[in-house]
Amino acid sequence: MPELPFELSRRRILVAAGCLALLLFLGSKLLARPQPSAGLAPPAAAPTETASAAPTVVVVDVVGAVRRPGLYRLTQGARIADAVSRAGGATPKADLALINLAAPLADGEQVVVPRRGTGALAAPAGAGSAGAPAGGPVHLSTATLEQLDSLPGIGPVTAQKILDYRQQHGAFTSVDELDAVPGIGPARLDQLKDLVAP
After folding, report:
1. What is the largest CA-CA distance in the chain?
2. H or E stretch covering 48
3. DSSP 94
4. What does residue 139 show for φ and ψ, rounded to 5 degrees?
5. CA 3 to CA 159: how far, in whole Å?
6. How far is the C-alpha of 61 from the C-alpha of 113, rounded, in Å?
7. Which of 21, 62, 72, 91 falls 20 to 30 Å from 36 in CA-CA distance?
8. In this structure, are strands 110-113 and 138-139 parallel, antiparallel, or unpaired?
């Protein structure tokens, strides 16, 4: 009989240890359950944050007399000066007096920093988004794809070639430089001379 209480206490210890292990296992499962439901709430909030964050970023193409031309993401409300700064700043050949550094940026805008001596006129407030006032010549150094495409004999493909040339070589210094753009020959150049300006 003395062994029975010892055997009984051993069984009680084993049962208690088993219950404790079961409680720990169930507790960890119960504690783990609220985390997935809590994890479901942030993804529901995440699209709202993404939707509200999307309009606060603008992407601009900075070309011309800057150290690192390319596409840059900036916060909405940024100015042309911010875009030039993100592109490594202006080169020593840049003529910053020809652009409005205080103008706000728009998504999809191209910012052209002209070189000194190009003779290009300062663009209106948008700097890279306007080529010419209504009825005036289209400025090759600041015109958008749409403005170039509106010229007679220039389609979207040739307009893109003009933009590519401008990105590689900087602002136009002369209308005659159009002759170096593939797809524009002497006849087309004569047709455009009165409609465009550097």
Report:
1. 121
2. helix 34-53
3. B
4. -80, 115
5. 100
6. 11
7. 21
8. unpaired
